[in-house]
Specification:
Helix content: 40-55%
Strand content: 5-15%
Largest sheet: 2 strands, antiparallel
Number of domains: 2
Strand order of the largest sheet: 1-2
Order of helices and strands: HHEEHEEHHHHH
Number of helices: 8
Structural class: mainly alpha
Distance between the termini: 25 Å
Length: 208
């Protein structure tokens, strides 16, 4: 089940280190869908993204945000030269608690920590480095999110499976002579040493 886009937008805006602009909000939403796909093989939201003049673009994100203007959100316009910039901030009406799963919240927190404090040039570089953006050949076509490489969860990591097989082959019963029991304890210690090493390696290699 997809997350409600309003809830995702509210979480991003209420927790961002700086008020997102229209451009940066779309990129934060995209990075949330990107990281979610890495973990679960699908998007968090039902947004469709396409490459635009300033990177990834999704009409649905600013349209949804604007529908909450003067309620849960406040849109502020800044004029400069011959253009303008929209900023999104918490609005006059307190937002209800977003109904987001733990999996969504985990990903959104990662987006906030890694990207909400980035200036726009750095945020652009981050999203241009993703597989769907790297695969773009024609502007205007929807990004192919299936290009994203799904990372195995720690419990499914090949090294963790190898570890489980290794541990399952160890006999933890305590029988026999003192010498046999001493040798048995050494065998257990060797298995645990391998377990610690491989668990640490698997943890470092997943979910970066």
């Amino acid at each position: 089940m997809k997350a409600d886009l309003q809830d995702v937008i509210l979480y991003l805006i209420y927790n961002a280190q700086y008020p997102p602009t229209k451009t940066s909000l779309m990129k934060l939403g995209y990075m949330a869908d990107y990281y979610y796909w890495q973990l679960y093989g699908e998007q968090m939201t039902d947004c469709e993204y396409e490459p635009g003049n300033y990177g990834v673009f999704c009409h649905k994100i600013p349209n949804t945000a604007e529908s909450m203007d003067k309620k849960e959100l406040k849109l502020t316009m800044f004029l400069f030269g011959s253009g303008y910039q929209l900023n999104y901030q918490p609005g006059p009406e307190p937002a209800t608690q977003p109904e987001l799963t733990d999996e969504c919240l985990q990903v959104l927190r990662k987006v906030i920590v890694k990207h909400s404090g980035q200036r726009l040039p750095a945020l652009k570089r981050s999203h241009y480095d993703t597989e769907p953006m790297q695969a773009v050949r024609v502007k205007g076509e929807n990004l192919d999110m299936s290009k994203i490489q799904v990372r195995p969860k720690t419990k499914d990591h090949p090294r963790m499976k190898e570890l489980q097989q290794h541990i399952s082959g160890v006999d933890f019963t305590v029988k026999g002579s003192p010498e046999e029991r001493a040798e048995h304890r050494q065998e257990i210690m060797r298995a645990l040493s391998v377990a610690r090493k491989r668990a640490n390696t698997a943890r470092l290699g997943v979910g970066k």
